[in-house]
Design a protein that fits this description.
about 150 residues, alpha+beta, about 20% strand, 6 strands
Length: about 150
C-alpha cells in the first residue's frame, strides 16, 4: 500500500482532529524493518525524490521504516462535510514543505485524480486534498513520525 501524500510528521492534536472528522488511523506497516541507519537513509532518499537503492521493480518499498496511514474514505462519515472540512483545513501539516509527493523511483505513491493533480501542481494544497477525497473517493496520508517521534 502507498499513500497519495507523505507526511513525515503529524502533531497529536492534528491526528485527533482528523479522526474526529472520520479519518481512520491504520495499523503499523513495516514494523519488521524497524528504524535502522539503513531504513532512515531509505526514507531520507525517498523524501528528497531520490531513487530508493536496491528496490527493483515493482518497487515494493520494503526498505522503508515503520509508518501508518491516515485515511479518509467516502464510505466512512458524511462525505460532503468531510470535503468541506478538508477544503478549509488549516492544520500544521497543510503546508507544501510538510505534505509531500516525492517522485523518486521505488516509492510509488498512489496516483491522484486529475483535479487533485492539477490543484497540487498549482500549489493549492487544500484544493488537492479535498479534490482527491471528493473525486478520488479516498485520501491517504502516509505518516512516519507522530509528534516528532519515530512511528513504532
Amino acid at each position: 500500500m502507498a499513500g497519495h501524500f507523505i507526511l513525515n510528521n503529524i502533531l497529536r492534536s492534528d491526528l485527533d482532529d482528523a479522526q474526529t472528522h472520520s479519518a481512520t488511523w491504520g495499523n503499523i506497516q513495516h514494523a519488521e524493518v524497524g528504524w535502522t541507519e539503513q531504513s532512515r537513509k531509505v526514507l531520507v532518499r525517498a523524501l528528497n525524490s531520490q531513487s530508493i537503492p536496491g528496490d527493483p521493480e515493482p518497487h515494493n518499498r520494503a526498505g522503508l521504516p515503520p509508518h501508518r496511514y491516515l485515511q479518509w474514505d467516502k464510505t466512512n462519515g458524511d462525505p460532503d462535510a468531510i470535503a468541506r472540512w478538508l477544503s478549509g483545513l488549516r492544520a500544521d501539516w497543510v503546508d507544501k514543505m510538510k505534505l509531500l509527493r516525492p517522485t523518486g523511483d521505488g516509492l510509488g505513491l498512489t496516483g491522484l485524480c486529475s483535479d487533485a493533480q492539477a490543484a497540487w501542481a498549482a500549489g493549492k494544497i487544500n484544493g488537492a486534498i479535498s479534490a482527491q477525497f471528493a473525486q478520488g473517493h479516498s485520501l491517504i496520508l502516509e505518516i512516519y513520525h507522530l509528534g516528532g517521534k519515530e512511528m513504532a
